[in-house]
Amino acid sequence: MTRFTLHTSSTSAQPKTLQTKGPVMAKLPQAMAMIRCVFDQYSQKKKTLSKQQVAELLRSEFGLEPGKNAQAEKLFETLDNDGSGAVDFTEFVSFVAALCVVESESE
Ligand SMILES: [Ca+2]
């Protein structure tokens, strides 16, 4: 069983512990690890995704065909928040978070 120790207060003598439910990793840490895993997969463990790698990710994960229209170009520009010409992990996470919001609002 996995135990996480939270030191919530320096005056607290007994640190509070969080327990996950059974041997399975809690869902959110699992989801976070999964996001990192997807990013590493498409970036080939580099720190950023190129336009081509973003296109590959969108094609494989969402069945989108970017690169064929102006919409894809615009999407990449939106993802590349700082205009560096590549999508870093922070920009990728913002994109995933935005997708989660869209997804939950459409329910
Ligand atoms: Ca960028």
Task: Present the secondary structure layout.
Elements: E1 3-6, E2 16-19, H1 27-43, E3 48-49, H2 51-62, H3 70-79, E4 87-88, H4 89-105
Antiparallel strand pairs: 1-2, 3-4
Question: What are its keywords?
Answer:
mainly alpha, 107 residues, 11% strand, Recoverin, domain 1, binds calcium ion
Task: Please estimate the helix content.
Answer: 40-55%
Provide the CATH top-level class of the domain at 46-107: Mainly Alpha
Counted beta strands: 4
Quote the beta fraction.
5-15%
The termini sit apart by 35 Å
Global Rg? 18 Å
What sort of overall outline do the alpha carbons produce when their principal axes are compared?
Answer: globular
Task: Report the CATH topology name of the domain at 46-107.
Answer: Recoverin, domain 1
Low-confidence stretches: none
Second-tier CATH architecture of the domain at 46-107: Orthogonal Bundle
Largest sheet: 2 strands, antiparallel
Find the structural class using helix and strand composition: mainly alpha
Strand order of the largest sheet: 1-2
* The named CATH superfamily of the domain at 46-107: EF-hand
What's the tally of helices?
4
Element-level helix/strand string: EEHEHHEH
Query: Which compounds are bound in this model?
Result: calcium ion
Question: Quick check: average pLDDT?
Answer: 81
